[in-house]
Amino acid sequence: MSFWRTARMLVKAIQVEGASREKKIRRLYELFDYNLLNKTNSYVNLGYWESGCTDLDEAAQALADLLADEAGFKPGDRVLDVGFGYGDAALHWLTSRNLGEIAGINITPLHVRAATERARRLGLADRTDFREGSATELPFESGSFDRVVALESAHHFLTRVDFFREAYRVLRPGGVLATAEILPTHPDAVRRSAVARGVPPENCYPAEEYARKLTATGYTDVSVRSIREHVYEPWRRYLARRLEEPDARAQMGMFHKQFRDRVGTPGLDSPLAREIARADYVIAVAGKPPS
To answer: What range(s) does the Methyltransferase type domain occupy (predicted)?
Structure first.
């Protein structure tokens, strides 16, 4: 399936009248083919573009590693990954951080099947538990995880604050919640937006309010910091380069110029450049007080 046909199906899927918001988000992630952007993995994030990152595969892995560092992963930890995509980060963390177990929750059946099958192939099935379900009604016992993480997914949750409460419930005393996510600061920023598509108005507020909501939920040692300069513009520059590669041009066909004009070129203004200028990107870390 061509990139542009997939994109058109995406738009149609999320505009279906009468469909629940959850169903629209599920369709959003079931239909999109990330192979155009990623070459060696299936991460569904914009990446953390450290010095030396040359493509989205490296940057997406770097963002996963940054979130693990911020969450303070330790050998033997039991971790819950909320909105785990195809399982790239969860399985990477499980082995690279020597976790005891990683569980995951996702509303997209395709992702659950893909992550479960990958864990089986890698011989990690006995240390993983991927389930279909909602981030705001986590199907796990209270006080059962050392860390809860959401890698570029919590902006979709209706609402993010309800997720904060559920994460607090399933964390053990002294546990940590850590998120990395797109943060539109005003509902106007999500209208006609590709980057912030699927973000409910209730989740649009600045980083300071994000921190206040975590504190009001009961978390302590709250930190919410912007990393937008290491995410949005480097990602856009990568897209501009990627769109000029022969396979990308071939997949887009006659629509290549239209998409390229939206993305723009490094150093020049474009619709996408103006769009990302209106959104923050944050790493948030908060602790559940020890009992």
So the answer is: 80-178
